[in-house]
Amino acid sequence: MAASSAVVDDVKLLADQANEAAEKFVKIFYDSFDKKSSVASKLYDEKAQLVWDGNAVSGKDGIVKFHETLPSSFHTVDSIDTQQVAAFVTGGQSMIIVTVSGSVRFSKQKLKSFTQVFLLMAAQTGSWKIVSDTYRLRE
User: Fold this and answer.
1) If you average pLDDT over every residue of the chain, what do you get?
2) What does the pLDDT average to over 39-43?
3) What is the rounded distance in angstroms from the CA atom of residue 72 to the CA atom of residue 134?
4) What secondary structure, in 3-state letters, does 43-77 show?
5) Among 69, 95, 115, 119, whose Cα sits 20 to 30 Å from the Cα of 54?
């Protein structure tokens, strides 16, 4: 019984750590994205993939160029959901899935809802890198 209690405690600790990391990441990401800061580009892995409303972009450089084509934006985050990816799936690499939903206003367009899903991989620097990013506007 004590062993299963320790496993539950470990899972809870990992979930809490993933939630904390996701909240920090989301704040940094949207603050820098909306300000057109170069910080957002540093959050992507070199081989990252982006799907923006069905349009696929490959690699960090391609994603940065794509982001530069977007009008100015202001995101409001309503919810963040986080799930740690099981170690047996990732070969021991720490990864989390972060699902964000909220509202966004691009330039002078009307306010729209959005959902964005990130797959984040732990980097050697102690930070997180985006390996997959899917963004969907909801009408």
Assistant:
1) 90
2) 88
3) 19
4) CEEEEEEEEECCEEEECHHHHHHHHHHCCCEEEEE
5) 95
pTM of the model: 0.89
| Closest alpha carbon to 117 in 138, 96, 103, 93 | 96
Tell me how crowded residue 52 is: count the other CB atoms within 10 A of its CB. Answer: 17
- How many Å apart are CA 12 and CA 115, to the nearest integer? 26
Is it the case that residue 54 has pLDDT exceeding 50?
Answer: yes
Encode pLDDT of 55-86 as tens digits.
999 999 999 999 999 999 999 999 999 998 88
- Token code pair at residue 69: 């084509």
Of the candidates 119, 137, 138, the one whose C-alpha atom is nearest the C-alpha of residue 128 is 119
Residues 77 and 65: their CA atoms lie apart, in Å, by 24
- Write out the two tokens for 63: 């994603």
As a whole number of Å, the CA-based R_g of the chain is 16
The residue written with tokens 């992507």 in the block is 44
Which residue bears the tokens 């600790």?
Answer: 13
